[in-house]
Amino acid sequence: MKIIYIASEMDPYCKVGGLGDVMGTLPGKISKRGIEVKVIIPAYGKIDFDQFGVEKNIDNFFMDMANKKYEIRIHKLIRQADNNKYEILFLGNMEFFRREGIYTNETCDPYPDNFLRFLFFQRAALKYITDSNFQPDIIHCHDNQTALIPVYLKYNYNNRDIQNTKTVLTLHNIGYQSITEFHYKKYMDLPEKLFYPCQLLEWYGQINPLKAGILKADKVTTVSQGHAKEISNDERLSAGLMPVIKSREDEVVGILNGIDYDQWDPEKDEYINTNYSLADFDGKRENKKSLLEETDFSTDNIKIPLIGIVSRLVEQKGIELIINKMEDILSHNVRLIILGNGTELFQIKLNKLAHQYSSHLYIDFSYNSPFSHRIIAGSDILLMPSRYEPCGITQMIAMKYGTIPIAHKTGGLADTIKHRKTGFLFQKYSGEAMINAIEQALEFYRQPSKWENLMINSMNSDFSWDRSVEEYLELYSQVADNR
Ligand code: ADP
Ligand code: GLC
């Protein structure tokens, strides 16, 4: 079988969140199972091709979009994954991708032409595939940035070689749909009737690519079983797409993400101060000490509970609960370290709080992978009060490091954290409920044997990719057999 993954992020080349983590691992795991795999991602300006050994400009071609001719350059990397190799193709274009950010500019505002950028990317990827001699059995698309691929395959390529190719669309985040104005249809080159009211692309007087992708993909997946149920039953958690999901109910499945334990393992993590393991987790204390030093906190009383947050600073992540309850959180004699970037307004509010509570609060607004490792290893608790969370990677990583998650009981957080066994969950999305969960956790923390049990349970949890890979393989063979 041949599979092409097309996505807008892939660790370590370009990552904003968990999509990058999944793309950084899943294709390699699948290729290891004997499937021929290729990955196509945009050649963003910020990717350092030399650092990764990417072969530059191996090919180029031209594509028209709304009567303008664009050049696409192809760069290639053969990635080694567990004694196995697969190909990554970077699709480059000066106008759309030669800039620093992936989705946003320096002030974290989305680029105004994001719809066009990713429309271009999808059309170019399909042109490249159809012109090449690698005809995939399945194209696995991810999120709104690649959701139009199933639509193009159905309407623009049905007489070509690629007509037998099936599509899987994974919804990592249904909250981002790339809804756009009708006048962009001139760039899309799709049949006019699809834009009519109540037709495939129309959504409340605008164009909704994610809705169309959900309707036309052969299979739709999301990244936990809990979230699959949520989006089928809850208007709000589906960001309005519940009726669309319901109409495809038989084709929607939840497959939990895994964690790449080669990258996230306290026993061999190269970014942390002292390695440690379940058999001997004394080293965690050393990591806490060095993290306190790194963040200018006093190490005199190392026992003060240390809470870490590593997150995009966006509405989804419950940042307003943290801001509104900051005084209350810190009144519990804890220290809080936040690493995150995102919405400017959240940064402004958090920055003010960081000055006000400098003895207990440290905030870094950068995107910093090595520092995220040190926060996760050195903190006692990871706070993740997400309003909704399709899966959540950070809490699974934290558990491997014996860092106890406190989270809102939603989606993948509810599926992965066992209340009072591996972490703490709060049911209602409110500041009071979050504080109550923090108090429960601190109650355990004051009793070392109880805390140790939590750490042992959480470090024993297994979120490796093995199970999910089996589920994806099963899904791929179902999809391919349906041809
Ligand atoms: P989401 O994809 O919604 O952002 P996940 O929990 O699935 O949430 O994945 C987030 C990923 O991004 C994790 O690997 C997390 O460590 C990483 N991450 C988020 N913010 C930062 C940051 N500021 N610096 C480094 N890594 C970050
Ligand atoms: C999304 C979700 C997150 C998930 C990640 C990877 O961005 O917000 O919950 O873990 O994608 O699937």
Gross morphology: globular
The secondary structure category is alpha/beta
Largest sheet: 9 strands, mixed
Ligand set: adenosine-5'-diphosphate, alpha-D-glucopyranose
Distance from N terminus to C terminus (CA atoms, Å) equals 13 Å
Fourth-level CATH superfamily of the largest domain: Glycogen Phosphorylase B
If you consult CATH, what is the topology of the largest domain?
A: Rossmann fold
The helix content, as a percent range, equals 25-40%
User: Could you report the average pLDDT, rounded to the nearest whole number?
Assistant: 96
Q: How many DSSP helices? A: 18
> Given this structure, which CATH class of the largest domain is correct?
Alpha Beta
| Low-pLDDT residue spans | none
Number of strands: 17
**Rg:** 23 Å
Count of separate structural domains: 2
CATH architecture of the largest domain: 3-Layer(aba) Sandwich
Sheet with most strands: strand arrangement: 3-4-5-2-1-6-7-10-11
Question: Strand portion, in percent?
Answer: 15-25%
How would you concisely characterize the structure shown here?
The protein is of the alpha/beta class. It is built from 18 helices and 17 strands.
